[in-house]
Amino acid sequence: MKYALLDRGDPLSRELKEQFKAQAKARGFVYDEEAPESVVSIGGDGTMLQAFHRYKDQLESVAFIGIHTGHLGFYADWQKNELTELLDLMATTEPRNIHYPLLHVEIDTTEGTEAHLVLNEFTLKSADGTLVSAIHINDEPFEMFRGDGIVISTPTGSTGYNKSLGGAVIHPSLEALQIAEIASINNRVYRTLGSSVILPKHHHCDIVPPDLEEELIIGVDHLLMAKSGVRSIMCRVAEKKVTFSRYRPFTFWNRVREAFIGSV
């Protein structure tokens, strides 16, 4: 097996990385950062986002595995004290590969069009404060948004920023995207739906800012960029999916309960 490793950079994650590499070498695994079959993330969910974006052009050939060095995360199946168990299973067991949907974002600007793949969420805010943008669904006008911003999440990202805004938690087997509002302005003059909207695959939404000169703050997972001259932003469920290797059962709703509710 060829594998690559990314760690969070803290002392514990670096130590676990060296332990993993030593045990993997003893089992005949080959460390290959250029063309791995498995990409192992050691740290938190943020580390997994970094791993995804590093290998997003190789999604057809790589599968991701998460080792969490803190509390159990949504992208990590394994705890810091389970390295040996994981490596034994990797050496002897065929994993169950799970494929989760991604978000495809196209940003059309006066300088051209750029596309992004998103694992967790896409965010849009204005550098000047209040964001004003028309939202179209399937090329039909839906609403004129005014507020702090907009979050569009994948099902796996629905437990993050989206949930804090009152959005629904969506099982990652469903191919969908979710639009959530950040502090929308609703009064007699300005109205929005005021709740999150879930779109299935083959539907898309367009965000159209009215002012080309406005500077927008755009978030693609953990990456932030400032852009002006934005004509429109199109979001849909991507054709590509991300693959996670499961070497033991993973119950999404148990993970949700553990993260937000605790023991029942």
UniProtKB/TrEMBL annotation:
The keyword Nucleotide-binding applies. Transmembrane segments: none annotated. Its EC number is 2.7.1.23. NAD(+) binds at D45, G46, N120, E121, R146, D148, T159, G160, Y161, N162, K163, S164, A183. Keywords: ATP-binding, Cytoplasm, Kinase, NAD, NADP, Nucleotide-binding, Transferase. SUPFAM superfamilies: NAD kinase/diacylglycerol kinase-like. GO terms for molecular function: NAD+ kinase activity. Its cofactor is a divalent metal cation. InterPro entries: ATP-NAD_kinase_N, ATP-NAD_kinase_PpnK-typ_C, NAD/diacylglycerol_kinase_sf, NADK. It comes from the Bacteria. The active site is at D45 (proton acceptor). Its main location: cytoplasm. Belongs to the NAD kinase family. HAMAP family: NAD_kinase (MF_00361). This is NAD kinase. It comes from Cohnella hongkongensis. The lineage of its organism: Bacteria, Bacillati, Bacillota, Bacilli, Bacillales.
